[in-house]
Amino acid sequence: MTDSADAPPRRQKAAGKRQRLTAAAARVLHEQGVERTTIADIARAADVPTGNVYYYFKTKDELVEAALTEHVSHLKTLTDQLDQLPDPRERLKALVAAWVGGRDTAARYGCPTGTLAVEVDKRTEGGLDLAAGRAFRQLLDWAESQFREMGVADPDGLAIALIGAYQGMSLLSNALRDPEIMTREGARLTRWLDTLT
Amino acid sequence: MTDSADAPPRRQKAAGKRQRLTAAAARVLHEQGVERTTIADIARAADVPTGNVYYYFKTKDELVEAALTEHVSHLKTLTDQLDQLPDPRERLKALVAAWVGGRDTAARYGCPTGTLAVEVDKRTEGGLDLAAGRAFRQLLDWAESQFREMGVADPDGLAIALIGAYQGMSLLSNALRDPEIMTREGARLTRWLDTLT
Amino acid sequence: MTDSADAPPRRQKAAGKRQRLTAAAARVLHEQGVERTTIADIARAADVPTGNVYYYFKTKDELVEAALTEHVSHLKTLTDQLDQLPDPRERLKALVAAWVGGRDTAARYGCPTGTLAVEVDKRTEGGLDLAAGRAFRQLLDWAESQFREMGVADPDGLAIALIGAYQGMSLLSNALRDPEIMTREGARLTRWLDTLT
Amino acid sequence: MTDSADAPPRRQKAAGKRQRLTAAAARVLHEQGVERTTIADIARAADVPTGNVYYYFKTKDELVEAALTEHVSHLKTLTDQLDQLPDPRERLKALVAAWVGGRDTAARYGCPTGTLAVEVDKRTEGGLDLAAGRAFRQLLDWAESQFREMGVADPDGLAIALIGAYQGMSLLSNALRDPEIMTREGARLTRWLDTLT
DNA sequence: AATGAATGAGTTTTCATTCAT
DNA sequence: GATGAATGAAAACTCATTCAT
């Protein structure tokens, strides 16, 4: 009631720090790659002392997983918005439009989920952690639902084709440093969605 | 009768070693990822003393680039074989079949070129090394030639769509550890190629 | 009565460690030479774990520069003391006396500033780092001030002659392992200072 | 008589290689410093295969000593020429003029003998190799002879003063990257020689 | 003697993780 | 919880020296 200005409630501060770390990890890990990013990098980006990170995340792997979850959560926010569109085909086309909207980031750093997935996969030698897989599941399920609602055949195959196309175009766009690949491939996907019956 | 087993020809050893190192690098870097693979790992896989690696490759980056080139060279070998088929459409379908044939490796480690490209991209901070881009160029050009020979519109767009689809399905197949994704997507691509006019 | 021996004050430890490292570097680099001294040598001399050195100095070069600065700072302390003498000629003669006082060290290891300067110069290939130059600037300026105050002609030329003579006699004394060279040359410089008008 | 073009006499070739290595070592070690120069550097500069170096010099130390000797031998050549001047004072003044003539090299790399001496001294830890000392002995002796012939008092002290002045001015000139220091100090030394009686 | 290649010990540097306060 | 500092196990890279022809 009285000390809110000088001493913000601990409960909130801690949660805020965790969130800041997660957001910083999501951004920095995407930009620099998992293996080339140090805990200190993330701590600095989140404006948190290095040693303090370990009160929120026991290991680097936990931070990586949190970052992956953060990206998934961004996708959830996006699909939640798209769900407000009445037509499933329009929802999918809007998803493609969102991808194209992120073309500059994709050309520079690739798809956050995709590039993280590639690296995370190598980190879990032998073991089937599959954190990378989980990251895609949700989006695949959402896309499949849309296709199903559209009444087209093989909805889960189409979902894989669509998400796969996005991963592929992001990867090529990134490797060739050419955002226009996203634009052109996005247009092609949109046309494709229109032809499905 | 011959002493080839006991006394391997010294003359060829040097060239052979470089090749052994390149091949080992291509394999191990693909399996473990660039950043998690040490020079010692590659040396061991090639049965070469660690220090000796540097006689053939001045830096780890050079080894990575050699590995990338090795993968590209594998693709060249493949497309050279496909070129013997009379019909460009058949060549492309055979390419897809080859991809599907590698589904188990893709599901376990992803596409060699693609996963290396993602990591190589993060290694060249800010700089436009584009080694990753060069790795794709040749295959894109080859695919474009086939589409052009088929007389379809937008051959380079189709080339990007095709290679992108492969990258995407490899990535998803890897993240979900599911080789069947390769099979199903391969079938879809084959059908797609058949519909092009 | 006090636990100072068992539990050294942590608060001061950090600052103290950096100073200990700098002092150790100054000594060891002088005695062994820059290139033949390892970070581990310095760490051991400072009683600091090797890895911890990098918390205070990002590279070996930074340690070398700190050592050079440390030697310069010793000279500053010396000239500050000499400044308390009323007569500039006496100050210069006292400086020479101080040099002669360090004859055994000079005969064994050379002038700290001079020998470090020689090696530092070779470390900065092509680049104009001039850390070595900066190391001499202060002493040259101080000597020049004294000559100026004495009212003699060409004070900066004389400063160079004086400091140069010290460097030369240290180098010869070291190469010939003969401290007496310092004594005799010191006497000659003193006589020379007395003749200046 | 017949194969001179295709197969030069072995006896000469070997001697030529040794000489080339010595000359290359003298130059490269001066420019880069002893510790930063590799055997391979010297071999390359002499256009000799790396492995072959060891047929002429058993260790790096031997090469360093040969380089030092080479520099001393240059000095001998110089003093032999100066000996043809009738007046010892003129000989000494001509020596100073020669030093000034090498001012650009001195400003860039320091005095060959002096900088090598500093580094060689650090290489013989504890042991009294004194190769550095021997390098100066000859020049000191020659200068002392000149002073003696001039009939001035304390000829060996003056020799040390003269050679020391050269070492000092080279070192400062190098540290400050200023060849003019050589010019000015040279002029001062010349005047000083003229005043001696 | 000649030579490219091999060797292995050593050096700088990095960093996830832990610790003391 | 918070924080700067500590730690130690790698990892990349270097190079004098040796070796097999």
Automatic annotation (TrEMBL), chains A, B, C, D:
Q: Which InterPro entries match?
A: Homeodomain-like_sf, HTH_TetR, Tet_transcr_reg_TetR-rel_C_sf, YxaF_TetR_C
Domain of life the protein comes from: Bacteria
DNA-binding region (UniProt annotation): 38-57
- PANTHER family recorded: HTH-TYPE TRANSCRIPTIONAL REGULATOR YJDC, TRANSCRIPTIONAL REGULATORY PROTEIN
Q: What is this protein called?
A: TetR/AcrR family transcriptional regulator
Q: Which residues form a coiled coil?
A: none
Q: Give the organism, scientific name.
A: Streptomyces milbemycinicus
Ranges for domain HTH tetR-type = 15-75
Q: Give UniProt keywords alphabetically.
A: DNA-binding, Transcription, Transcription regulation
Does the entry feature the keyword Transcription, yes or no? yes
